[in-house]
Design brief:
257 residues; alpha+beta; Ribonuclease Rh, Chain A; two-stranded antiparallel ribbon; 6 helices; disordered N terminus
Length: 257
């Protein structure tokens, strides 16, 4: 399990260990620069222009996806520091067959985790992974092929999926809510402010919850700034630039049943 580090009065920083698919160039003298707080011509080492990165999770109840005691992965989305973003940044790297790509890189554990926790509710899981990589993964400046030594096709996509899985494992939304006495129920309702408070306290920065069917919570956005590159950097919790929610003040947190 990746580890947390925290300094007094500072936001929680997440330092992630990685098994790299390829060899990302080292980033000396740049990892102290936090994305969205500085600039550099070396965009292999500083995520630019998309330095606000959101780890997005689902709580799917109809149809159900994933374990009944865990949220699941939606994706890892790079956004500009003002909340704007681009998608599908390089169609030439819209890889197919993510399963084989991960297997060939020796990332069987990552793939196995994705098969349990990165699931689609309306298409094949493989198609979902391909979409998330093509739509969002190709927009990371630090994952450009030119950022790699001895690059082989797909190295950067493997790093994207490993990073997303490892980061998700540091964000146990279900557990954080349960620790605050907030558990799924078909009869109870909860104050949105109670969920926000519990999650912000555990995460170290405000989160954004979204609802469907008017008042049923189903999605969460965690935001980060990044020191270094996606493959080896340090993730620092941040506030979402767009903090709006479509949830009412009282919501349902339905069980997966």
């Amino acid at each position: 399990m990746p580890s947390f580090t925290q300094t007094a009065g500072a936001a929680l920083a997440v330092i992630l260990p990685f098994v790299l698919a390829g060899t990302h160039d080292t980033c000396p003298n740049t990892t102290s620069v936090l994305s969205c707080s500085g600039s550099s011509t070396n965009t292999c080492c500083i995520s630019s222009p998309y330095g606000l990165i959101q780890q997005v999770q689902f709580w799917d109840t109809d149809p159900v996806t994933g374990p009944d005691d865990s949220w699941t992965i939606h994706g890892l989305w790079p956004n500009d520091c003002d909340g704007s973003y681009s998608e599908n940044c390089d169609s030439s790297r819209a890889y197919k067959d993510i399963t084989t790509l991960l297997q060939n890189a020796g990332e069987d554990d990552t793939l196995s985790f994705m098969q349990d926790y990165w699931l689609s509710n309306d298409e094949s899981d493989e198609a979902f992974w391909e979409h998330e990589w093509a739509t969002h993964g190709t927009c990371y400046s630090t994952l450009e092929p030119s950022c790699y030594t001895d690059y082989e096709t797909g190295d950067e996509a493997v790093d994207f999926f490993v990073a997303t899985v490892n980061l998700f494992q540091t964000l146990p939304t279900y557990t954080w809510l349960a620790n605050a006495g907030i558990t799924p129920s078909s009869s109870k309702t909860y104050k949105l402010s109670a969920l926000n408070s519990a999650l912000e306290s555990a995460f170290g920065a405000p989160v954004v919850l979204l609802c469907e069917n008017t008042n049923e919570v189903y999605e969460i956005y965690y935001a980060f700034n990044l020191q270094g590159d996606v493959a080896t950097g340090t993730w620092v919790p941040a506030s979402n630039e767009d903090s709006s929610t479509n949830c009412p003040s009282t919501i349902k947190y339905l069980p997966k049943s």
